[in-house]
């Protein structure tokens, strides 16, 4: 199961100012462990799973789960929501045959990908053209002039002129003949594709408050992917595209349930050690 860590919303803080009364001494005075009451909202199996992680995380931080809200020093409240999203996975790859004068021809590939929500406009070919000088600079350090030979995209479209414009914009000198260039781009082939992706996710959020706080404060949030499905690529024969779409979306090996439980416990521990 893969996880996408979205954002840490904040840390649990004791609300305090001169207009507030001094908080009563917490029931964990002395060497007793801080007692934390946990409650969750959402599908029962997921809430139960998060509860077990919270218990482990609290124990790691020297605290313990309380069975009674009234006798707790702090309260953690979780919300788990199942969501569905539709994305478009965009990918492009350049296959290039290039060489420096008096050097051997060297095949290479430059590629990039991105995922955007359905409805967000995106021109993959234009993105690839704009990025070309940056990849060129990384591959051919020190080059100042370039000869652009044959360059085509999907369907045989000639992209030599757009690439030349981007290279000129990046301050490269265009050579009229191969012999006058630092680098010769003998042949450039650009391929692009789009793969529609459907995601089913669980969004987890935890809020918390200490015994003297009236309102809970957001602590941490994360989203865990439950299922990912794909429709056919716009370029079915472009095997790299379909394979990359299946491993994309910034997946992480971190379990979102442990992530939010651990960060909530650390935030609570920081609060009680600071006061």
How would you explain this protein's 3D organization?
This protein is α/β, with parallel strands linked by helices and 275 residues long. It folds into two domains: 3-21 and 32-84 and 195-274, Double Stranded RNA Binding Domain, CATH 3.30.160; 90-193, no CATH class. It is built from five helices and nine strands; from the N terminus they run ββαβββαβαβββαα. Strands 1, 2, 3, 4, 5, 6, 7, 8 and 9 form a nine-stranded mixed beta sheet that branches. The protein is elongated.
Write the layout of secondary structure elements.
Layout: E1 3-7, E2 34-41, H1 44-60, E3 63-66, E4 74-99, E5 106-117, H2 124-139, E6 145-152, H3 160-169, E7 173-174, E8 183-210, E9 217-230, H4 239-245, H5 256-274
Parallel strand pairs: 2-3, 2-4, 6-7, 6-8
Antiparallel strand pairs: 1-9, 4-5, 4-8, 8-9
CATH architecture of the largest domain: 2-Layer Sandwich
Count of spatially separate domains = 2
Q: Would you report the number of β strands? A: 9
Order of helices and strands: EEHEEEHEHEEEHH
State the CATH class of the largest domain.
Alpha Beta
Q: Into which percentage range does the β-strand content fall?
A: 35-45%
Q: Overall 3D geometry? A: elongated
Give me the Rg, rounded.
28 Å
Poorly predicted ranges:
1-29
What CATH calls the topology of the largest domain is Double Stranded RNA Binding Domain
Structural class: alpha/beta
**Termini distance?**
39 Å
Report the total helices: 5
Largest sheet: 9 strands, mixed
Mean pLDDT: 84
Helix content: 25-40%
